[in-house]
Amino acid sequence: MSDAHNEHESAIRTPKQLVAAVAGFFLVTVIGIILLVSFVTTSKLTGAGTDSQSADAVEARLRPVADEGYVLKDANAPKVLLAGDAVYTANCIACHGTGAAGAPKTGDIAAWTSRLAQGYDTLIKHAIEGIRAMPARGGNPDLDDVEVARAVVFMANQSGAKFAEPVVPAPAAAPAEAAPVEAAPAPEVAAPVATVPEAAPAPVAVAALAGDTGKKIYAQACAACHTSGIIGAPKFADKAAWVDRLKQGNAVLYEHAIKGFQGKAGMMPAKGGSAASDEEVKAAVDYMTAAVK
């Protein structure tokens, strides 16, 4: 009986044992907390696969926007002329890569034979000034003559020609300094004569002038595409083709005509590939929209 009773007695029988047990319990608890904190603070967190607090991640968030694709250019720096293949890819491939608008496809020797027979100078002249459905300078008025020539040579040489690469012309020599000229005596100024201001032109005359300008620019720069509807251009006076474009408003139509536009249906070069002013291009847009209203 005494042995059975002893089996249920506690292991802590004295005050010293109780103090030691409590101290041990707290020591184990503190050590466990320290180990847990150390594990959490030193381990790399996993989530989306990257550490948002790493040095690289912080630097990427603080990096200036300019480092992400914007390049500052010196407007006064000399222009770097592009190679022929670069000009072709950026400006010519839309038509000469597919044969759109009757353009001879690059590499099609049969289509280029009659063109090459015209000679190098004629080909370059047509590319710079434009001919039939092809706008001047491929629709990019910022291209230099040498860049246009390089693109033509690139296409022609892949289509049976053996033209030499165009060279950049040497800059003209600076004119010699002229000898100083003595200042001439100031002429006598005649007394001002009173003039009667001319009457302002009538609004009807102004409208007629704007219409004439729009018709003229249309014939020079727009008719090649908008008369036949090539390269996705809405045909002149075709109300069904213009209805969605009229809904965009004049401001959008002006911007697309001046800056150029490329969409799913086709492409339009800036200002139709011409050197017309913004106001002249707007007048041409008004001329075309007036025909479908």
Automatic annotation (TrEMBL):
This is Cytochrome c5 family protein. Gene3D superfamilies: Cytochrome c-like domain. The keyword Transmembrane applies. One of its GO terms (molecular function) is iron ion binding. SUPFAM superfamilies: Cytochrome c. It comes from the Bacteria. InterPro entries: Cyt_c-like_dom, Cyt_c-like_dom_sf, Cyt_CIE. Keywords: Electron transport, Heme, Iron, Membrane, Metal-binding, Transmembrane, Transmembrane helix, Transport. The chain crosses the membrane at residues 18-40. Residues 79-159, 209-292 form the Cytochrome c domain. PANTHER family: CYTOCHROME C5, PTHR40942.
